[in-house]
Amino acid sequence: MAQMFAYVCSDDSLSGELLEGRHGEALRGVEAEERAGLGLAWAQGGRTLVRKQPGKRASGLDVAALVGDVRSRAVVGHVRALSEGRVPTGVLQPFRAGSWLWAQEGFGLVSEEVYGALREGVPEHLRQRLGGRALAEVMFLRAYAEMDHAWKRSAKQERWRGTAAAMAQALETSSRVLRGAEPSDELWRGAAVAARDRGLIALALGEALNVCVIEGLEPPTDQRLRERVEQVARERFRAVLLTSGPSPGAEWERLMPGQALWVEES
Fold first, then answer.
1. pLDDT value at position 188?
2. Burial letters 91-102, b for 16+ CB under 10 A, else e
3. CB count, 10 Å around CB of 14?
4. pTM higher than 0.85
5. DSSP per residue over 219-261, as a string?
6. Strands across the sheet with 100-106, in order?
7. Which residue segments constitute the domains of the chain, with CATH numbers given?
8. Quick check: 224 pLDDT over 60?
9. Does the pLDDT value for residue 183 go beyond 60?
């Protein structure tokens, strides 16, 4: 089983403690010895960064500790499982373009003909970014072209809603290509998440996602004597954590197939 995850938070200095706590347990859906690769992407200092750990390097990492060490308010990631076969470094998720980060889960493998049909939907100026034949990458760049256009053309108060609609439309178009090639198959089913700066968009397309809204962090029991300013920071801490796979618990809500979620900077 593979796993996609993402989060946005109000204070990157507390993100490590968020993920080391009970909520971070949701990121351990793929056991260390079962990992074929781990990919992270995050926004930091006006840049988008990617870190990929294939094979044995991925199995030797604690996911929550690794993500918690990233100083960012917006992170997306994907863990590939050994059961999915050997995954070359070049096709590990996630991906980035412009100010956007992207990860997706599901959709399976496609033939060269189907990949070619999807590739034709990528604008010419973005095709040169395609490396290898990763389905997630070509679906992302098809969506990115529409999302970037919507972001730039929408009024500030409508940016996230408009971009979420553009992402949904682009992925639905891609899924129609996949359904047309394999009408009796379910390889087109999946989910995707895109993030930038301090917000994210998640879309469940045939597969459900799990969402947890976090308001405030409890201090560790052995650090109760911290200064009040730190306690206030914890009380004001806000985060939205998202994962694919089975529901991690009662605190999590389900984003059902056909639903979209966006979290804005505010």
1. 60
2. bbbbbbbeebbb
3. 18
4. yes
5. PPGGGTT--HHHHHHHHH-EEEEEEESS---TT-EEE-TT-EE
6. 95-97, 100-106, 190-196, 199-205, 260-263
7. 3-263 (3.60.20.10)
8. no
9. no
